[in-house]
Amino acid sequence: MLKRITLVYNSFIFAFVLALSVFSNTNLEMMINTGQILIGSFFILVVIGLIIQWRGKLEIGFITTVSNIIIWGVYIFFLIGNDPMFGNARFATLPASIIREGIHQTSIPFSTINYLLLSWLILGFIAIIFLHIKCVRKCKTPYQMNISWKAVSFNIFLAVVFSAFFQPQLSKETKELGSMLGSMDVDRVIEYIRSFGGWAAGVSFLLMLLQSVLAPIPAVLITFSNAAVFGWWQGAILSWSSAMAGAVLCFYIARFFGRGAVVKLTSNTLLKQVDDFFARYGKHTVIICRLLPFVSFDIISYGAGLTSMGFWEFFVATGVGQLPATIVYSYVGGMLTGSAKMVLSGILILFSITILVFIIKTMYKERSKKK
Amino acid sequence: MKKFLLVLVALFAIVGLAGCGEEKKTEKKSEAKQEVKEKEVPQVVVNAEVNGKYFTEPTRHGVVFKDGSNGEKAILRSLDDQKKFYDDLVALGATPGNNVKLTDMTADMDHGIAVDGEKLDVYIKWEGQKEIPFTDIIKASKGGNTDLDIRFGGNLEAAKEKQTGCILCLDSCAVGITSNANYKTGSTQNNVVQFFGNDTVLPADGTKVQVIFRLHEDK
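^ Those are the sequences you sent over. The predicted structure of the assembly is below.
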C-alpha cells in the first residue's frame, strides 16, 4: 500500500512539474493542452513505476518523497513565483487552470480546484507519513530508510536543467548563450565574458564547467577568449584550472551514476580485463587522449570515471596531458590557423605515438615474461 | 371526491400551461422588441465567458470559440461559433481583407504583415456594466500598445481548415476572423508585446459577457 501511494504521489509531482514547465514556454502553451500533458504523463509514470515495482527494482521511500517535494517545490517557486508583473499571483490561477483544461471542465472555479489540489497534496503526504510509520513497526522487510543520494543528485541536476530551459528569464540567457557558443565566433564569446566585469573570471570558469558536462560545446573557444580577456598566461591558468574542474566533474558524474550500470551491463571477465588495463596503463591512455587534438576531452573524462581508474592517476594525467595545448592555444590564440595549427597537431600526435609505443613495448615485455 | 380532484388538477394544468404560453408570448414580444432595437444599431453580438487564466498569463487571443482547438487560449471564451460570426459580419456589410497568409505567421519581426479588411469598433458589456471599449479589458507588457485597430481579416477557409475557433486575435492573424492591425504577424511569437486580460476592469473568471462588433464610424 505504501509503495503504491508513494509511487502515485511522486508521479503526480513529476507530471505537474512537467506540465508547469511546458506551460512556461508561451509558444508551447499556445499550441498544446498542457492539462493533457499533466494527465498523460501522470498515467505513464504510474504505469512505468508499477511495472518496475513488480520487478522489485523501484523503491520510492519516505525520505526520497520529502526530498522530491523540497527540490521540485523550490523549482516551481522559482518558475512561477516572484513574477516581475504579478508577484506570486500566478499560484492562484496557473495550477488550477492546467488541471481545468486537462479535464475539460472550464466551469469549475479556480478556488475549488486549488482547494482539491491542496487537499490531495497535504492528505497524500500525511497518508505516506502514517503508512511509513506503520511499515517501520510492522513490515517484514524494512522499507527505504536511508536517503538515496543518487536520486537527490539526479533530481537537483534535472531541476537545474529544467530551470535553464523553462524559467522565463533564465531561458532567454540560455538561448543567447547557446546561440553565441554555437556560432563559433570567438569575438562574441570575448564580448560576452567581458560584459560581466569583475565577475568575468567566474563566468568563464562556469562556462568551462558547462562545456565539460555538455560535450558539444567547444572548449577551445573559451580558451581563446580567456587569453584575449585576461592576458595569455593568466588566461592559460584560468583555462587549465577550469578544464581540470570540468574533467573532475565529468569523472565523478560517470563514477557516481555510471559505474553501477557498467557493472550490471558487462560481464565480470570483460570488466576485470578493462579494469586491469586501466590500472596499469590508465594514466598513459589519458595522457595520449589529452594530447590528441581530435579526441573529445569530455568523453575521456566520462570514460575514465566508468573504469576503476584511481582519481589521482586520472587527475595528474589530465593535468599533464592538457597542458601543452592549453599553453599554445592561449599564447597563439585565434592566430592558430592553417599551417601553424597543422604543425602543432603534428607535434602533439608525435608525443602521443611516443607514449603509445612505450605502452605496447611494456605490454609485450610483460607477456614475454609470463610465457 | 376523486373526480373533483381530477378536475382540480386539470384546472391547475390548464392555468399553468396558459401561463407558460403567456410567458413565451411575452418573451417573443420582448425578443421582437430587442430585434427591432438591434436592427436600429447594426451590430454582431458574441456571447462569451471570462477566462481568468489570462489575467496573469500572456496570450495573443482575445476571443475564441470554446470548442475550437484554441478554445482555452483566449481572454474570452466564446459560446458562439467563429464561422457563424464570419457570416454575421458579412451580413452586417463588412468586407473581409483576406490578405494574411499562413506563411506570414512564421515571419520574423522584420517581415510580418498587418491585417487588412473592414475596420470594426468593438465593445464589451456584462451584467451591471454598460458597454465599454474592448481595449479597456486588455493589458499589455511594458511598452506595449493596447490601442486596438480591429479589422475583419476574413480567413474563413483557414478557420475551417485549422478549426482553432479564433474570433478576435490581438495581433495580425491568418486564421482569426478579426485581428489587430496595430501589431503585425509574429509580434507575440517574437515577444514584441505580450497581452493579458485586465483584471481591474474585467469581471471574475467565468462571468458571462457580450462582445459587440460594429462597423467603424469616424467620430
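Chain A has two domains: 2-166, 183-370. Residues 183-370 of chain A form one domain.

Shout if you want it in another format.
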